[in-house]
Amino acid sequence: MNFLDQQEKIQEYIKKNYKIVLSELSLEDVNDYIDDYLDFDKYTKAKILFFDFGKYKFNSLSNESNEEEFEFKIYIAFRNGKAKDLKSLMLKYTAAFYEMFERSGGNFNGVADFGVIEDITFYNATEANINIKLSEISIKLKTER
């Protein structure tokens, strides 16, 4: 199992394809793609997508194969604007991410056998600041090996 390769493929797919969907919706690409924890003091650009690669689960199946389940989160943060405008951006950019994921077949074009966005959570205030908006996208990918 090559964890690094899988995570890099997901990042590359998102970096390449998210901006395409955003462009179709007349939205600019995010300012940065960060593979790090959420740190609003360190990362201060207006629109940032964070990768939070979480946990892997492994199950033995009766047909002598194994199932790998990979759960991770994508955060899209918005700041440096009026609260009302930031909320609108948060909703539009999250919808664009959902569209990009669906176009990939729910698996980032074959990184896994099957994938689903399990839930999306919107935060209208982050760190008690109404001028930082955040969407949290929880994704689960499954592969049989």
Strands, helices and their partners?
Blueprint: H1 3-24, E1 32-34, E2 47-60, E3 66-79, H2 83-103, E4 114-123, E5 132-144
Parallel strand pairs: 1-2
Antiparallel strand pairs: 2-3, 3-5, 4-5
Strand order of the largest sheet: 1-2-3-5-4
Find the count of extended strands (DSSP E, 2+ residues).
5
Element pattern in H and E: HEEEHEE
Number of helices: 2
Q: Using only CA atoms, what is the Rg?
A: 16 Å
Q: State mean pLDDT (0 to 100 scale).
A: 95
- In helices, the fraction of residues equals 25-40%
- Runs in which pLDDT lies below 50 for 5 or more consecutive residues are none
Structural class: alpha+beta
In the residues, how many domains can be counted? 1
Distance between the termini: 10 Å
**What gross morphology would you assign?**
elongated
The largest pleated sheet is described as: 5 strands, mixed
In quaternary terms, these chains amount to: single chain
Share of residues in strands = 35-45%
Give a structural overview.
The chain has 145 residues and is α+β, with helices and mostly antiparallel strands. 30% of the residues lie in helices and 37% in strands. The chain has one domain. Helix 1 crosses helix 2 (83-103).
Summarize the structure.
The chain has 145 residues and is α+β, with helices and mostly antiparallel strands. The chain has helices at residues 3-24, 83-103; strands at 32-34, 47-60, 66-79, 114-123, 132-144.
Keywords:
alpha+beta; 5-stranded mixed beta sheet; 145 residues; single chain; 5 strands; 2 helices; 30% helix
